[in-house]
Amino acid sequence: MVIRFKKGKHQSKHKPDTLTCIRDDGSITWTPLHRGFVHHDFAHYVVETTLGFENAFFGLVSKGYDIPDFSKPKAKRPFEIPEEAMDTEPIVALLQADFPNTPYPQDAGSTGIFREYSAALPISITDEQLEIMRQELRALLQQWRNLQAGESMVLQFHT
User: Which of 4, 39, 109, 113 has a 20 to 30 Å separation from 98 between CA atoms?
Assistant: First the structure.
């Protein structure tokens, strides 16, 4: 699946950042992103690819779930969110918290908030996995910072 993040031209004039996913079968789903939400989606990408998750946000989108449906109330959502997707959220949140001054961090702390609270996570994260996720998130955020309004960056997601 191709994931395209496009930097909005005028956040205040209704030209927001957007997330578009083009599945392997050619079908497309997309959504405008609220200010700063790119950081959250980058963290999802890094967590899911590093940990090999197939049933979290991008894995589900790849399987045909439409992005706007994730925002619907549970009773109106056309699917149940799998346990793996639920387990992913606290990992994403802690990874984001490790980067101060979101969405434009300079650097994560040496131990960071992640390790301080990781015992409460639904799965264990190794130091090596955490370092990979931090480095990849840092690189994605730097790429995003370097984009001009209207430019896009493309990522690949494989399940």
Answer: 4
